[in-house]
Design a protein that fits this description.
homodimer, about 210 residues, mainly alpha, 9 helices, elongated, DNA-binding
DNA sequence: CAATCTATCGACACTGTGTTGACTATGTCA
DNA sequence: TGACATAGTCAACACAGTGTCGATAGATTG
């Protein structure tokens, strides 16, 4: 994943890195209280105990702050996901379930950040690219899973695995997003994983072998 | 669908309705050249040959203009969709195909509007609601189709039909959106319909009966 | 022909962004 | 030690955009 820590500041010693962390923490706190649009650079600066111009010494915009936050979460999520897949061992249905669950958990734990990112994506090329890279990561994992199941003769052939994976991952992103933000129509938070998994199952295997 | 023509203005006779149409037309034209964020109320006003304060006589914000545009397109799309389903007759696979195709065509024909709406949705409750109502319309149609195929014993039972429909419709929205805006990862525009249809088929029937 | 209503806009108040230039610490090395 | 660079800071400025108020012109109607 890209190194965002250098986004928009000159290299520096220590006390400035602390400031940077303070800004990020302040941003997280503020996002818990209101939407990104309603947070001004001044709010961010005040929250970190500095003036607005000083903020610009550390980040080029509030957007960059959110992207730095997202970068951090994406890396953390990658590790959690890796662990989840290791824990599942060789039980294939469990692999799929844990894969999806780890995505859902990341969404859940960083609900407000996800909301802010969703606000950014349509307006910012950089946000769009970063989000795309994260989605791409899920797609690649899924492609590996599909291909391996096809080789074993368990999964249906027909749709190119990457096309299938792209579709299913976007579906999952939207379903989770709608559930967690309350965007109608949506599925209740406690059912969304089961339904998603069922559709993954049918799309890949043609049946409900991933649980039902 | 809701009557948006009264959004934010006092009732009035004729010449003002023309102005309103001029503003809408101006908005459509401007959206073809740059994103909603880069269009100011002043641009909109100038485009319709009026001053900025006069704009506010007709619409409370540029957001309201986009929503009025969307409302119009949604109604038009509903009719096209209805016709498409009539044309399909009783050929069930053709019904599904034409249903999805009419959505794709609407996206295609109003690409720039869809882009503007996507920008609005995360920031505006009203936009979120209207978009939700449009999606809901597709979901309801799909539920009818799924239930009727289940009654005939052709479609797989198991997942509640509304849950299935919500998931598939959101998937389709995201796939089309990614394709038409170039958001990566995506499927090429000329393949996205076939792949979507294949997944609908597997999710509803467990096989590729909708084409392969 | 006065009263009323639609339509219009100049001018204002406000909020937020991003930049400039000056100032202060702090550490470096000649 | 003292000149020098450099990190860090912010008051003040210049903008761009939003939304509102009050005055006014033209049409309509009783």
């Amino acid at each position: 994943m890209s190194d965002v820590s250098g986004r928009g500041r000159r290299s520096r010693r220590v006390s400035g890195d602390d400031r940077e962390r303070l800004i990020l923490a302040s941003a997280e706190q503020l996002l818990a209280t209101r939407s990104l649009t309603d947070i001004s650079v001044d709010d961010l600066a005040k929250g970190a105990g500095i003036s607005r111009p000083t903020f610009y010494f550390y980040f080029p915009s509030k957007e960059a702050v959110v992207l730095a936050l997202l970068d951090r979460v994406a890396e953390e999520a990658r590790l959690i996901r890796e662990q989840a897949l290791l824990d599942a061992g060789t039980d294939v249905p469990e692999l799929w379930r844990r894969g999806l669950l780890s995505i859902l958990e990341t969404f859940r734990q960083h609900r407000v950040l996800m909301l802010a990112v969703a606000q950014l994506v349509p307006d910012s090329d950089e946000a769009q690219k970063l989000w795309g890279r994260i989605i791409e990561g899920f797609v690649n994992d899924s492609v590996l899973g599909i291909d391996s199941e096809r080789e074993r003769g368990r999964a249906l052939p027909g749709v190119p695995s990457r096309d299938l994976a792209i579709s299913l991952v976007w579906m999952t992103e939207r379903m989770f997003h709608a559930s967690l933000t309350g965007q109608e129509p949506n599925l209740p938070e406690d059912q969304v994983l089961e339904v998603a998994l069922r559709i993954w199952s049918r799309a890949i295997y043609g049946d409900d072998s991933l649980g039902g």
